Amino acid sequence: MVRSFRSVLIASAAIYVGLWGIAATALFAGQGQSTKAAQQNEQTSGGAPTGLFDCRFAAIGGELSYDVTRYWGGFPKEFDAATYKVPDWVLGPFTKSSSNPVLGPTPGSWDRGQHVSGGGVHAGAVVVVDGKFYLVYRGERDLDRKPGYICDIGLATSEDGVHFTKDTEHSPFFGKGEDSKYSFEDVSLVRFKDTFYLFCNRWDWTRMDDPKVSGAFLATSKDLRHWTKQGLVFPQAEEIHRNPAILQNAQNEAVKVNGKFVMYINNGLIAYSDDLLHWTSKKVAHPWPGGENCFALADGSEKYPNRILVFTGGNHSGHFYAIGEVLLDRSDPEKALEWVPRPVFCAEAKYPWEDGKDARPPHERISSFRDTTWFSALTRYKGLWWMYYAGGEVYMGLATAPAGGARRKREAETGQQPGQ
């Protein structure tokens, strides 16, 4: 996300950040609830999500909320939801879990949250290994110098995808020794053969515009717990490369297109690699709307095996941060064929943890980030798509959607993913 670039401005507007009574681990364990939840979007008999574009967030004062003047994001203004036919390539609709939030800050720990603008745990990535969910996430804490907070990356695991246990032995991963001055944020995680590749943003707060010290960062691991830092991915670039989203399949395996791995980057950039370690970037000729790329999916549809879905997470038709979907093809991974003109997933004020409030009653304001949701964690397992998204930049929630076709039946029956 771009919060690193807007932190100073937001700090002055963060007037609602009160006492930080973040709940302990029990709050985020779901308290024994099942994953059943009310759908955000109802469906017609034909399967099209009729409520897909009904999500609106009340604009209140100067908070980061629904505002068509500031946050349109380049999408067409003319739109009739009553007559618009949702394309069959769209992934969703997603159902938000009644167990939400599934992950939150831990008081007194490295991911305890920060008070400047409000932030806790979010912008993570997920992978399922031998039936266990591994959620690699961004955690925040206060900092005694500008911009007032700093982040690192850690791990939480779950047997059911709902109740997570944080790995306090190995977390956080990076901000130690000479690297303690950096903020590590916003994860894209893939696996290839026997190695996991963790891409994220690394920021030196004193040199945020200098690609020699800030931008896309890479580390590798064999077990998701012990990481080898490979360093900045584009140290010789002329501009900052941030929010790397590696093209991956439904099992989070890195995918090659025309013999190359693909990375989608903000500001109309794309990069290619032979080995996931060394990358060459370029500008795309015609960037698509949506502001920021958050996830890139290949091989997600049996009907369209050559299609690529890029999810966007920036300003979207009046939303400060909401999720959009862009369609591309393997024949040209730089050219958008179509995009949905309105967000397919966004924050809802009826959920306190998505409205910048504490998840516990009386739901006091703890974050300026109200109309804000983002995800970089998506996987397919047991016939479902599992998406872990941010709420108010303080919590992580779970939303699921059916995975169609023969794959869904096979995974549901065996509990295995293809290739396992």
CATH topology: Tachylectin-2, Chain A
Count of DSSP E strands? Answer: 21
Q: Based on the structure given, which CATH architecture is correct?
A: 5 Propeller
**What is the structural class?**
mainly beta
**Number of H- or I-type helical stretches:** 2
Share of residues in strands: 25-35%
| SSE series | HEEEEEEEEEEEEEEEEEEEEEH
**Whole-number average pLDDT?**
85
Shape: globular
| CATH homology superfamily | Glycosyl hydrolase domain, family 43
Largest sheet: 5 strands, antiparallel
Kindly report how far apart the N and C termini lie: 33 Å
Alpha-carbon Rg, integer: 20 Å
Taken together, the total number of domains comes to 1
- The poorly predicted ranges are 5-51, 416-420
Helix content: under 10%
CATH class call: Mainly Beta
Protein architecture, described:
This protein has one domain (3-414): Glycosyl hydrolase domain, family 43 (Tachylectin-2, Chain A), CATH 2.115.10.20. The protein has helices at 3-13, 405-414; strands at residues 95-96, 121-129, 132-142, 149-158, 164-166, 182-192, 195-204, 215-221, 227-232, 245-246, 256-257, 260-265, 269-273, 279-283, 293-298, 307-312, 324-329, 338-339, 375-381, 384-391, 395-402. It is globular and about 50 Å long. By secondary structure, the chain is mostly beta strands. The longest helix has 11 residues, at 3-13. A hairpin with a 5-residue loop joins strand 8 and strand 9. The relative contact order is 0.18. The model is unreliable at 5-51 and 416-420 (pLDDT under 50). It starts with a helix and ends in a 6-residue tail after the last helix. The strands form five sheets. Strands 10, 11, 12, 13 and 14 form a five-stranded antiparallel β-sheet that branches. Strands 1-21-20-19 form a four-stranded antiparallel β-sheet. Strands 2-3-4-5 form a four-stranded antiparallel β-sheet, with no helix packed on it.
